[in-house]
Specification:
A hairpin with a 5-residue loop joins strand 5 and strand 6. The longest helix is centred in the C-terminal third of the chain and has 11 residues. By secondary structure, the chain is an alpha+beta fold. The N terminus is likely disordered. The chain has one domain. The protein has four helices and ten strands. The termini are far apart.
Length: about 220
Amino acid sequence: MKDTLTIAALAIALALGGATAAWAGAPQPDERAGDFTHVCKGGANKDQACTVANEATDCPKSECVIKTLSKTISGTLTIIADDLVVDWATGVGLPRALTLMLEVKAPDGSKQILAETYQNLGDLTNLNSDLQLAPTAPSNVVAIGMDEFALQNLATDISGLMFSQPETTMANQLKTLFGATGTPVLVGLNKKSQFADHTGDNLASVLRFKVKIQFLEPV
């Protein structure tokens, strides 16, 4: 039976999971939204800082909304979880890995594919540990168990990914690609996802769905 691992995928750390799949203590989407600056949408205090909890006072006759630093970027996110990474030479697999692949259209109209694979490379010799080579995440970021069974659970409800963000490497590449400031964040998810379930064999499981990204200003 495959062991449950932990990873921050997009910190996304993309970092993931619906309310039913979220790691214990992981912030939910409404809480993560509070990590970003909010302003009044209109009225006498338009563009002034506000909080959702004090919306009526901060933004009379208006709404308290998240401050955006960019237009909406459409893309496709693919998450690949593999509990048995196969060695080419021996055909034997030990390490586990999680790969994120994000497809977006750059400002010049070209199609860009950004991908990264995550593993815990802190200890390659501890073969007896349940977490040997398991993707991991700091306890203070959004995280769920990220083995293939966790990806299977995530496929039933991806809504928990709202307002999650990529880890630093991918986030910086997005900022460079779009010449943007702030933090790239998932602000829209198309729930019509595709899922290839390989929890019953030695292939990797794959989850793929459309996303919308905006650059937001952290509080």
